[in-house]
Amino acid sequence: MAANVHQDVERVLFAEEDLSRRVREMGAQISADYAGKDLLVVSILRGAAIFAADLVRAIELPLEMDFMAVSSYGNDTKSSGVVRFLKDVTSCVEGRHVLIVEDVLDSGLTLSSVAESFAARNAASVEMAVLLRKNVANQAHVACRYVGFECPDEFIVGYGLDYAERYRNLPFIGVLKRELR
Ligand code: PRP
After folding, report:
1. 163: CA distance to ligand 1 center in Å?
2. Which residues lie below 8 Å from residue 175, measured CB to CB, with a gap of 6+?
3. Which parts form a coiled-coil structure per UniProt (predicted)?
4. Rounded mean pLDDT of the chain?
């Protein structure tokens, strides 16, 4: 790992300007769709934290933020196939419009498990906003109402996405150099 994390990136896939433009568009769409509704934005730690922080600032409605922590990967690069719930929301969910915010949809295991966990909580609605939908075979079907970008199946880091807990602080999304994986 270089002293400057920018130097560990092979190429940029989504530049800072692309991300901020698309996040603003998503925020405007969400603002229109949820006008007059009691909105609870739930972001999934840790990866979605940076996207969620930008997305809520692009939504011009009253809303509440909450967080869940879920892990399916550990420090490995492949899904273990097991979703562990590490932290639940503390807000009241019943009767509210829940928007789950996630950074990336890969196998779909995480979002489908999280969505399922909301099914029994009597929310008024449960929808999902994902920044990146990876183009992978055998992805679980997850009905995401808002998708930022379709993304190739590359080894991506940045803007919340990590490799072994590093690189989340890159302001863009890029492909990690092969020799570092
Ligand atoms: C990543 C990402 C999503 C999940 C997507 O989380 O943030 O939550 O994997 O993959 P899936 O569609 O195959 O389930 P990770 O478990 O790496 O934890 P993190 O959010 O702390 O980085």
Report:
1. 11
2. 9, 10, 11, 13, 154, 155, 156, 157
3. none
4. 94
